[in-house]
Every structure is written in structure tokens, then in C-alpha cells.
Amino acid sequence: MIGPVLNTGWRLRQYWENDVRMISLRLEISMPENLNINKILCGDCAKILTELPENSVDLVFADPPYNLQLSQELWRPNRTHVDAVRDTWDKFNSFQEYDQFTRDWLSGCKRVLKETGALWVIGTYHNIYRVGAILQDLGFWILNDIVFIKTNPMPNFHGVRFTNAHETLIWAQKHKGSKYTFNYQAMKSLNEDLQMRSDWVLPIVTGSERIKANGMKAHSTQKPEALLYRILLSTSNPGDLVLDPFFGSGTTGAVAKKLGRRFIGIELDEGYIKIARERIEGVESAPAAALKVANLRLQKRVPFGRLLEAGLLKPGQDLYFIQNGIEATLLADGNIQCGKLTGSIHGVARSLSNGAPANGWDCWLFEDGNGDRQPLDKLRQQLRAPTETGDTI
Question: Fewest CB atoms less than 10 Å from the CB: which of 50, 198, 207, 235?
Fold first, then answer.
């Protein structure tokens, strides 16, 4: 940290972003003392949310009661009992009661969210439409709805409906038009360099991931860590504060700790709190250096032709396709010619990859002064690097 602590309580911090050698100055307000960071608060979330400081949370993930309205026991065809969601916390006397409950906790979440904050809520067809309508009534702005498609859903045992194989998530920002966090490049990297879509195919919790108590599953609606991993990696940054008002068995806290995020959990059931605490204590945080997420939008855009103008490449020079060494000739206008193919480094690479997405900066190699083949991206980084005067080449 550089500079003195100002009278207002703000701190001036110098930091590096994403290996671009770009120094920025960020004003960061200190956390209020009454924020219980990395703690689980016991009680009703609507009440506790009124006691937390306003504008203090970066992200909310909420997995509220679904109000499943189950009226009878569920049995498999072989007459074994289905351990369904029959917990008292999922029972409401009417839709009106559920709607008021939803309005109360969503209002509390909006109050504690920062102006740049966002919220995720997950539900089924039993509740997600009511939650979404109330969320919009309160002024949240929906950014996406995500379909969590279960690879191993519970079958419909009576054969009277389609198998319910998905849940729906709503991602919304606090105010329309405000800034929010979205690590686009991280999601693209997770998805083999393709844009991440809004249908997420993930397994439900099974095996060793299932938290158990006395040989039985500890929580009936435990969510997979893979789901929270994707949510936190995409819409928060290391050091951000994540709030989960329905903490349950602690999946949000476990993944937050793993990814270097801070958390606040709220949970009504003391038994769940004990389970969550023990679970989170056993989680090891990733090294800080491994949590850096590339944000290519912060990097200076470099047209390929700039390498020719700067003399880093020359017309007529050979480039080599990384997969098989096929040669291409560099043309004066920045296109390349490879046999009968002529086009950009990206277009020709895509053709040589049978139409698969291809980044020409990584796919094409040039020979350096030692005769070693290097990716074109190495030259691009030279143009991005600041000179001794602070300018780029």
C-alpha cells in the first residue's frame, strides 16, 4: 500500500493488473468493523440483513426455499422411499406468505449490495417465476437467466410428467446501467476458448461431495461446488465479499475460500451451521498468484498490421502453423497466403483447423533471431509493453 490513510478512511492502493504493466490507482474504502467477514450468522436472514451495513457486499448468491408444496410421500416403483425436500423451512401457508418472505429478503439483499453489486438466485418452476417478478418490482435489472441442466436428475417415478432435469438461475445487477463484474475471458477459457453459454450442464451432488450427517445427507438441497465455482469465478474478483442468506451446508463459503473471496453466511438452523463450519475449515485456499483472472479487455488492442509497420515482421517472411508446421507467407497488407488460402491470421488458421475457433496470435509461429520458432503473441506483447518513457511502441 502506498500513501497515507486519508481522513475519510479511504486508502490509496497501487496495483498491477493482468501482467500488462499498467499501474492504476484505486480508492478502496475500509470494511466496517461490524461486518462479520468469513463468519456464519445464525438467525432469520430478513432480520439480519437489516443489521448489516448498506452498500458493503459485492455479490449475493441465494438458494431460497422452493416452496415445493409436497402433499404426500414419494415412493420409487420398487417401493423404496424418496428422500425428498420435506423440511419445515420449505413450507409456507400460501403464495402470499411466500411472496412476502421473498420480498423481505430480496429487499435486504438490495440494501447491503454495493451500487456495482449483483445477485444470483436459483430456483425451480415452483418458485423462480415469483422470485423473478418480485426481483424486478424491487428495481433489480436482470442480466441473464441460466439453465442448470443436471446430467443425473432424479427421475419422475410416477411417469406422469417430464423428468425435471434443470433448475433456473437469475443473474441481476442492483441497478440498470451500473457497472458490474463479469470475467468474460475466464468463462471463455473454462469453455475451451468458446463463449460460455447460458445452459450449464453439470452433475448434481453425489458421492464424496455429498455432505452427510449420521449416514444421511445433511442438507436436502445441497448445490454442487462446480456451480458455485462458475458463479464466483465469473462475477466476482479475489477479495470480494460474497453474501449467502441461505447458507445451508456451506457450499458458497467453501468455494469462496477456495477462490480467495470473503464471505458472510446467514443460516437459521444451528445444525447446518456446525456442518458448514467444519466443512469450510477443511478447505485450502488457492495461492494468490493462481487466482489472477485475465481480462483481455484491459489490454491495448494491437492490429496485426502494426507488427509490419513497427518492423517486427517483414513482407515475404514465412510463418508456421503451430499444429503441423504448414508455411504461410506474410503479405504487405497484413494478410497471409497459405497455398490457395489468403486472409487474416485468424481466418486462415480457422480454415486449417476445419472451421474450429482459432486465435491467430497463438496459432502462427515466427522465427526469431536465433532461429527458434515463437508465437506471434510474443511480438504483440512487445508492442503492448511500455517503453522507458512510459509510451508503447
Answer: 207
